[in-house]
Amino acid sequence: MWTRSGLFSCVAVLFAPLCGFASAPAVAQPAQSPPNLIIILTDDQGYADVGFNGCRDIPTPNIDRIAKEGVRCTEGYVTYSVCGPSRAGLMTGRYQDRFGFTTNPTIDPSNPDAGIPLSEKNIAELLDPAGYTSMAVGKWHLGTHPRLRPLSRGFDEFFGFLSGGHNYFPEQYDLNDLSDVKRQWDWYRTRLLRDNERVDIDGYLTDELSDAAVDFVKRRHRDGPFFLYLAYNAPHTPMQATQKYLDRFPDIPNERRRTYAAMVSAVDDGVGRLLDTLDELALAENTIVFFLSDNGGASNNASRNAPLRGNKSTMFEGGLRVPFAVRWTGTLPAGADYHKPVSSLDIAATIVTHAGVDINPDKPLDGVDLVPFLTGQNRARPHPVMYWRMVPRDGLAIRRGDEKLILCEKDGGRMLFNIAEDQRERNNLVNARGAVAAELEAMIQGWTADFPGPAFPPLGSWP
Ligand code: CA
To answer: What value does the mean pLDDT take over residues 128-143?
Structure first.
């Protein structure tokens, strides 16, 4: 297929000797091959629980490498403060409300609509025509019906589980598959899937996911560009870690925090092995690596979102703003901080731009290519306005510039904050600045006006 990057490459090759392009500035260069993409997604990890955001009790030297060798985004947002809808936004690059993914989906494998609808494309499907090989590793949570599973949705390989969480010790995998589920949360006990087959593992789940990710890169990097979606379920509950990782934290007295630290540390080891593999194979300069959490730290896993208010499930910064870093060696600056708001929606827009993939104009992406922003070429805000909507919570939020309006009774009603001056969201300006609040409220009502209703029943409606 004739892609935009292919065209640019040919033009560059033809004219470079004549035009002296060799000393061009360090902006994204059309490469011989489109860049690989790796998304490392953690689950319910707190904003404060990475070294690059100042964490002291849990060293994350490998995760920190992504920020140190790339860009730390201090205001990186997801599109929802719980797992499923956040992943739907990230994976499609579109606000999930556009297609009714308004809540965590039911795990019911007989429901053909409980996931990303077939009318939408996820990143693997977007990249497929450009010759990418894609693998999903870890937590899926984007549909359990056969037509919604990774291999039906653009991925060439899958290793992991379909539900929203999982036990970490394989001796607890005493159910074959979802047909054995009789009660809520039984899905944490199913055997894992390799592609569409149930398989047994013998190691700690986080280590096994890291093994699969490294193995994929080693096996498939010669087949053309690749996309690896590495979705760790750590450090989501249940709190389970092996002695090897627990032993690293003898000085954390709180048992839950200690286990959380061990779970994060296991992820960090895996990230280190993956980055080392990119180095060994000389892939760093042609691989974009994103690291982020799917939502803020939860109230039940001993995570920390300091200095942000709130946590998972809320519309405060602690629910929606996550640890976020991106590395593209040689293209993005190294060790830079970026302070303007960016979004998980930007991952899809960034990769399709550099893979030269055309987007269906009827399904426009809501994100932007981050490269010109992170290199400083474009000094504007990537997102003058960002929106959030949580249907089961009856919550809405908008951030325009630094003004953020929250409309959510469960979080405390109608609140207006200036995030630049008050990132802890302590000083409610809704009365002092009533006109601004009204303006933002009208904007958000307009944004939601054409959205469809929920496309499927929520988590908890089955079995
Ligand atoms: Ca989550």
So the answer is: 98
Could you tell me the distance, in angstroms and rounded to a whole number, from the CA of residue 44 to the centre of ligand 1? 4
Ligand 1 centre distance from Cα of residue 43 (Å): 4
The set of catalytic residues is 83, 141
Residues 132 and 163 sit within 8 Å (Cβ to Cβ): no
CA of 449 to the centre of ligand 1 (A): 27
pLDDT digits (tens, 9 = 90+) for 156-178: 999 999 999 999 999 999 999 99
